[in-house]
Automatic annotation (TrEMBL):
This is ABC transporter ATP-binding protein. SMART domains: AAA. Belongs to the ABC transporter superfamily. One of its GO terms (molecular function) is ATP hydrolysis activity. Residues 4-243 form the ABC transporter domain. GO terms for biological process: transmembrane transport. Keywords: ATP-binding, Cell membrane, Membrane, Nucleotide-binding, Transport. CDD domains: ABC_NikE_OppD_transporters (cd03257). Transmembrane segments: none annotated.
């Protein structure tokens, strides 16, 4: 369903005169099947979010080929592309307008895309993400972190896209609500037959949600494997990453253990 071939992107002045040019993506290749959940993992700065941003149309100066359902993706963000591909960001506070109610935030894309039965669609979408009608009147600051992310997911899904790009969708959330949002995302994918590309630092999230993953290092994909193979060690860099994530999780858990012992 999604084919990315030789994707390259850099920032800065590429003329060579001013210097400061940084090549961020080098020949990134991967494919994602319809209905698949594909994880992108790797060290900080390896280019994961940049890949998502190219797919979402937030960057237009990439080179290479991106095709969705066999159709080459242009560099302009068209109405059809918005209907097909939507993105959910790490921080729902940043992606929701602070002075728009939940109802207004969900109605806006429907109005722009002139969709019929807008109020009915908002009610259905709220129910799908587990929020009742009373949430329509609330502002983002009147929601918990988990509820805000539910609204952000609802806003991304309200145009009925087929592809959801998820950039660290749970990392800004309290540990207690992370599982709730992951379960919601898994449930929505199963029910709606959605295709996910998910960027995360957390291999636990990949295991929970993804069928396959690609490991990025310095702007390149260095390994692609089924999630089921993660436990088997994989190739050297993936093994190192798995170990690093394990020790990262352990160090995150330590303060809680200390707290519990008080
Ligand atoms: N708009 C930009 N202008 C200049 N450089 C950028 C820009 N966006 C990203 N970069 C650089 O591109 C590289 C890749 O960034 P990217 O955000 O894709 O990494 P990442 O793997 O998602 O990292 P993290 O896991 O920390 O979010 C980094 O070196 C970053 O500094």
């Amino acid at each position: 369903m999604i084919t990315v071939k030789s994707l390259q992107l850099g920032f800065g002045n590429s003329s060579g005169s001013g210097g400061g040019y940084q090549q961020v993506l080098h020949d990134v290749d991967f494919t994602v099947a319809e209905g698949e959940a594909f994880g992108l993992v790797g060290e900080s700065g390896s280019g994961k979010s940049t890949v998502l941003r190219c797919l979402a149309g937030l960057y237009s100066h990439w080179r290479g080929d991106i095709a969705i359902r066999g159709e080459a993706l242009g560099r302009r963000l068209t109405r059809e592309r918005c209907r097909l591909v939507q993105m959910v960001f790490q921080d729902p506070y940043g992606s929701l307008h602070p002075r728009h109610t939940v109802g207004a935030a969900l109605l806006e894309p429907l109005t722009i895309h002139r969709m019929d039965r807008p109020h009915e669609r908002v009610a259905q979408m709220l129910a799908k993400v587990g929020l009742n009608e009373s949430f329509r009147q609330r502002y983002p600051h009147q929601l918990s972190g988990g509820q805000r992310q539910r609204v952000a997911i609802a806003r991304a899904l309200i145009l009925e896209p087929r592809i959801l790009l998820l950039d660290e969708p749970t990392s800004a959330l309290d540990v207690s609500v992370q599982a709730e949002i992951l379960n919601l995302l898994a449930e929505l994918r199963a029910r709606e037959g959605l295709t996910y590309i998910l960027v995360t630092h957390d291999l636990g999230v990949v295991v929970h949600l993804c069928d396959r993953l690609a490991v990025m290092q310095q702007g390149r994909i260095v390994d692609t494997l089924p999630t089921s193979e993660l436990g088997n060690g994989g190739v050297a860099y993936t093994r190192t990453l798995v170990e690093a994530t394990r020790s990262y999780s352990r160090s995150r858990e330590r303060p809680k253990e200390v707290e519990a012992g008080r």
